[in-house]
Amino acid sequence: MRQDLPLFPAAASTGAHQVDAITYVWLVVAAFFSLLIAGLILYFMTRYRRRTPDGVGAATGSPLLLEVAWSAIPLAITLVMFAWGARVFFYIYRPPSNAVEYFAVGKQWMWKFQHPEGNREIDELHVPVGQPVKMIMTSEDVIHSFYVPAFRMKQDVLPGRYTTTWFQADRPGTYHLFCAEYCGTEHSRMIGSIVVMEPTDYQAWLSGAAPGQSIVASGAQLFESLACNTCHRPGPGMAARGPRLEGLFGHQVVLADGRSLVANEDYLRESIVAPAAKVVAGYQPIMPTFQGQVTEEQLVELIAYVKSLSATPGDGTPVSAEASRAGAAATGPAIAPGATAPTSRAPATPTAANPAPPGR
Amino acid sequence: MSANPNATTPDTARTSVTAPATSDLALPRENYLNAQYGLRSWLLTRDHKRIAILYLISVTAFFFLGGFFALLIRLELLTPEGDLVGPDTYNRLFTMHGIVMVFFFLIPSIPATLGNFLLPLMIGAKDLAFPKVNLGSWYVYNLGALFTLWSILHGGVDTGWTFYTPFSTTYSNTYVITAALGIFVAGFSSIMTGLNFIVTVHRMRAPGLTWFRLPLFVWSMYATSLIMILGTPVIAITLLLVAAERTLHLGIFDPALGGDPILFQHLFWFYSHPAVYIMVLPGMGVVSELVAAFSRRRIVGYRVVAFASVAIAILGFLVWGHHMFVTGQSLYTATIFSVLSMLVAIPSAVKVFNWTATLYGGAISLETPMLYALGFIGLFTIGGLTGTMVATLGFDVHVHDTYFIVAHFHYIMVGGTIMAYMGGMHYWWPKISGRLYPSFLSKLSALIIFVGFNLTFFPQFILGYLGMPRRYWSYPPEFQVLNVLSTAGASILGIGYILPLCYFAWSMRYGKAAGDNPWGAVGLEWTTASPPPTHNFDVTPIVTHEAYDYGQAPVLGEEARVV
């Protein structure tokens, strides 16, 4: 609680300063036009006060030049601000390729976080200063919104799909985390904090907190315990009943109905909870649904594990059945030409929300 | 006194600028108010003026109901901890405040009261095109209102007036279906009114009243009606889908049932953004009338202002996505909605400049209605500018769903629409009731409303930028000072709204007779008696002048005259 009457919020991320710059310019523009209109009204209503009861105003001409001017000038100003705002918007929503992925699950009425190292937190998230942090988020129930005023950053968190955003904190401190989308009774209690720490403090915090295995390791464990491997990773010489998952993430997939898509988090999630929705070409829809059997957190771990498979050597395994069965490593037609393996930590994930950025 | 017999001769508009002495005037012996007696004569009336009065009573009741909810909201927010009411009650309060104010006050307010009363008078018609449909619309409105009142009395709704899914379809345990049905039914009254206005403007203008001689209020009513009949069916269908998912568990919006929660937002805002213009365009029309009448000057850029209304009505349908910048819609979609939202701001800006320019060289009289009109221009300017701010993508990410948005749309809805509505009521009250209200008291209440409004909502801009989210029952303590200011302003604002209720009621019995044209204004409504006779005009007027022709408009060519 900095003071009793703050007039400007703390700014603690690279994006926050860019948003504030827009704010300053808009404030000047808005103040100028508000004062201009108010000043003109006050001046005219004094200067042109009706002197006699039957006084009438001057004849109205058709000031074409004025009409053009007061249409064109606001248009020019708003278009400049639009372009600037769009630039900052793209910055806010396109994570850089070196961003580290953190996961968040919103539910009525709490935030659950998981670090890539596996640490879990509720309503509090520790992050290192200076490190781009990508948030991959989903909701267990209704729509929530992940909002950190000090980062000037907000992203709705939706049930049934993933949304992403990112930030790079540049000032250690503890900042408010709010749920910004009305979500029911305790909406105003669905708050928490983002603790930004120096990297060394963060490492100390990580090791001091309840030790656990990394999110990928948890996913690998689940992959075994749910017996995903029996179909998706058959032993030598066995026919694969399901597509191999190595090299899948970030690559193009051809579906049985002829459509094709790029495998992203939403696709992986859907393939686990509703496998029949999008069946890979050449496979039978035999996979049972795991809806209700895995929690949102476990889904996140499984997806993190499948993503990690795309970083292993031997990448480029085709995702169509023929090629998979043949065990050929050659590039099949199912893979988009020129598709490259994403890097291990933050593949530039093309999701519905965030088209893949060009290499930064 | 009956209709001005001189109205049929070309030069009377000039003479009518002289304000008549009002001291020894009497009300016309027979007028629409006393033409028939008894409750039955009101409930079965087909007179657009009486229907306007019926609407006035209904929307006023809802205004004070919505205001009561607002007062409780502000009292709750006086302290950071939720202590006055519980969180569930608070959630119902802001939901019911929004539903009542938007659907049962703001949307019908100006069109159904002032529009109903004035549209036929302004175009020299005896009534609207479909008088029975008009009366029917009032009953439909009240039927919808009954559904909503029923859900309020049984504990209310807690979804927010926006009914976002899947909260509204799956998770809320309140009376969502009855509230949604109430809005669904009331929507039909909007459609009926809009249809009536469009046909009336097309078919029933007096001889000589060409499109570009129409008062700008008529243009704005026309544009509003277009939105009403094009947009309202969409919200009606959307709310039916919500009810269908809630009762039949059809998977439409809830992803657990196979639906898409964002689909609801697209459908909802496809109506509800244009609905913003249903609320504010009539206000703009009123302000055009007031500025012209109290400057005694034709509105600068008449055609520009008229077409700006139509442009706003059309562009208003193309910007709904700016309510969804942070939902995860594609960055390119957001970019397009952002630039379109910037475009829709331009016609509004142009109107502000034209009104201001009209003051230049005018003969300005600061009567109560003019105070409201000038207040409207100032507050609407702030509301509009902050609107372009939130249309700026990078800026909106921060302030979306915060009090900045709350402040912004209250500057448009309250600072804009309600200021205009109050100004219009004060301007045409002498025509509606035939009587004058106390001048000093009314100016005082206009001042109280202006001060109270700014004190209530300006601090909310700062609160929003600081990061206080909307719909918060409790909040971090550093936000308290600004919330206290806002609550203090709301109590002042409340007094400002109660005063006019009192002196309007008082004036109906004790006010001085106003005479036909107390403001010395031009316009067909001022050429007939106050209150007008049931049939409006004894002789159908013939129009030979431009609107707002205060004796100095260029002389019209002979071919333009219709005799």
In DSSP terms (H or I, runs of 4 or more residues), the helix count of chain A works out at: 8
Order of helices and strands of chain A: HHEEEEEEEEEEHHHEEHHH
Structural class of chain B: mainly alpha
The strands making up the biggest β-sheet of chain A line up spatially as 3-2-1-5-8
Please report the number of helical segments of chain B.
16
How many beta-strand segments of chain A?
12
Pair with the most extensive interface? A-B, 95 and 104 residues
Q: How helix-rich are the residues of chain B, as a percent range? A: 55-70%
Q: pLDDT under 50 segments of chain B (min length 5)?
A: 1-23, 553-563
**Tertiary shape of chain A:** elongated
Molecular shape of chain B: globular
CATH hierarchy, class of chain B: Mainly Alpha
- Integer-rounded radius of gyration of chain A: 27 Å
Gist?
Chain A has 360 residues and is of the alpha+beta class. Chain A is built from eight helices and twelve strands. Chain B is mainly alpha-helical and 563 residues long.
